[in-house]
Amino acid sequence: MLIPIIGALIGILIGLNLPFEIPVSLVKYTAIAILAALDAILGGIRAQLGQKFLFSKFISSFFANTALAALLCYLGDMMGVDIYIGAVAAFSIRLFQNLSLIREELFDRFWIWRSGRREKDM
To answer: Has residue 63 been placed in a domain?
Structure first.
């Protein structure tokens, strides 16, 4: 669980300290890429909580989702269709689903720990 969180924190720190401005023409692509990256990060955290985390799967998901989302957004711009709106909706739904599952898992673990019971006792 620490690898995705540490990676996200390092990325945020690097992003905040780099003197770089995103051109207005690329803002849509950047927003989609950020949503895709957040989806991969939350998916990695969820997998780690379920003890199914594979670093290679996380890295491939991170870059493949980000690249595909940006490519679809670009193709939509070339065709004159706002595909990015659909991608924003899809990634937003996935983000909330992953966050909900992470919250439930942490809540369950907290109450199991708090009550002194082990998971096999449930």
So the answer is: yes
pTM: 0.72
Report the alpha-carbon distance of residue 33 to residue 70 in Å, rounded.
6
Residue 10, CA distances (Å) to 6, 7, 61 in order = 6, 5, 19
Whether 18 is in a domain gets the answer no
How many Å apart are CA 83 and CA 75, to the nearest integer? 8
Q: Please, which residues have CB within 8 angstroms of residue 39's CB and are 6 or more apart in sequence?
A: 65, 91, 94, 95, 98
Identify the three-state secondary structure at position 113.
helix
Q: Which domain holds residue 33?
A: 25-121
Q: Which of 62, 65, 77 is nearest to 26 (CA)?
A: 77
| pLDDT number for residue 122 | 52
Phi then psi for 92, rounded to 5 degrees? -65, -45
